[in-house]
């Protein structure tokens, strides 16, 4: 399969690229610089220097590919990009795998594909765009990742200590985060491409839902772990970002396993923070 991939030099996109290549697929990525293009080539993909806001390039690459994966999801990009891709793919069997996010479901102890939508301000923009994707007659699947971790990066890197400076919680740290390893996530995107559903939706979560305090204590490596008030967190991180990270979310990822055949195998977040990729 020849796949048109966006965000191939980013955190999620680079994992999808590795998974595509590992499964014998050909990937063409649109990137913004020669440096990023070289990183894509080094990973086994093809690269075109351009911009995902260029509708002519996007439409051409969508027509040339056997499927599209969009991981460069952003408020300023998604409406026009998805409209262009959906227009190019409608009436064809080509799959389009789009990136959503776990914050969409708000506070929930049982996040699933059927959960009500209740996004924080940070990601409220996703709602209308995802509705347009789901209403299309193209073969679309939205992947909604939990908190993504692994390879020493992602949001959890905020809680890696040096044994000296304090690691600050967000609020009191009692909220749970539903999580997914970056490499397991890349595999799920490939499975979604293969499945090529009509109006598919899958929550990408391994079923591991540690508290933020557990996360911070695993990553602190001797640094003091300090709670703070919600007001302090909002002042430090910005209200919208803090409010999203204060959400209490738990998920099992049961649909991904049962329907997609997904089998996440990587270290849990706490294990990875304790003695895995986050150890400095």
How many strands?
Answer: 13
Shape designation: globular
Number of helices: 11
Could you tell me the radius of gyration in angstroms? 19 Å
Order of helices and strands: EHEHEHEHEEHEEEEHEHEHHEHH
For the termini, the CA-CA separation is: 38 Å
Largest sheet: 7 strands, parallel
Average pLDDT number: 97
Helix content: 25-40%
Content-based structural category: alpha/beta
The largest beta-sheet arranges its strands as: 3-2-1-4-5-7-11
Spans of at least 5 consecutive residues whose pLDDT stays below 50 are none
Mind explaining what this structure looks like?
The protein is of the alpha/beta class. It has helices spanning 11-22, 34-42, 55-64, 78-89, 126-135, 182-195, 212-220, 230-237, 239-245, 254-260, 269-275, and strands spanning 2-6, 26-31, 46-49, 67-70, 95-99, 108-111, 139-145, 147-149, 167-168, 179-181, 200-204, 225-226, 249-251. The strands form four sheets. Strands 3-2-1-4-5-7-11 form a seven-stranded parallel beta sheet, sandwiched between helices. It has a two-stranded parallel sheet with strand order 6-13. The N and C termini lie far apart (38 Å). The model has no long low-confidence stretch (mean pLDDT 97). Residues 7-149 form the NAD(P)-binding domain. This is Nucleoside-diphosphate-sugar epimerase. InterPro entries: NAD(P)-bd_dom, NAD(P)-bd_dom_sf, NAD(P)-dependent_oxidoreduct.
């Amino acid at each position: 399969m020849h796949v048109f991939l966006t965000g191939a030099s980013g955190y999620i996109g680079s994992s999808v690229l590795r998974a595509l290549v590992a499964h014998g697929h050909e990937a063409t990525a649109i990137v913004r610089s020669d440096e990023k293009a070289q990183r894509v080539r080094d990973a086994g993909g093809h690269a075109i220097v351009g911009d995902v806001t260029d509708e002519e390039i996007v439409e051409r690459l969508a027509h040339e590919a056997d499927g599209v994966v969009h991981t460069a999801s952003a408020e300023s990009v998604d409406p026009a990009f998805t409209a262009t891709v959906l227009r190019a793919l409608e009436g064809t069997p080509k799959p389009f795998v789009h990136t959503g996010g776990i914050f969409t479901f708000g506070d929930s102890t049982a996040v699933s594909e059927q959960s009500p939508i209740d996004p924080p301000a940070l990601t409220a923009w996703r709602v209308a765009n995802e509705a347009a994707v789901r209403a299309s007659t193209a073969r679309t699947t939205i992947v909604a990742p939990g908190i993504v971790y692994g390879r020493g990066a992602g949001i959890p890197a905020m809680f890696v200590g040096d044994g000296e400076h304090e690691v600050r919680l967000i609020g009191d740290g009692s909220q749970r985060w539903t999580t997914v390893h970056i490499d397991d996530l890349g595999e799920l995107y490939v499975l979604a491409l293969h499945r090529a559903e009509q109006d598919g939706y899958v929550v990408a979560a391994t079923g591991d839902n540690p508290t933020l305090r557990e996360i911070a204590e695993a990553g602190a490596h001797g640094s003091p772990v300090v709670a703070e008030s919600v007001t302090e967190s909002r002042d430090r991180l910005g209200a919208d970002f803090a409010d999203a990270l204060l959400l209490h979310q738990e998920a099992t990822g049961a649909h991904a396993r049962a329907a997609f055949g997904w089998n996440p195998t990587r270290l849990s977040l706490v294990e990875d923070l304790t003695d895995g990729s986050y150890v400095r």
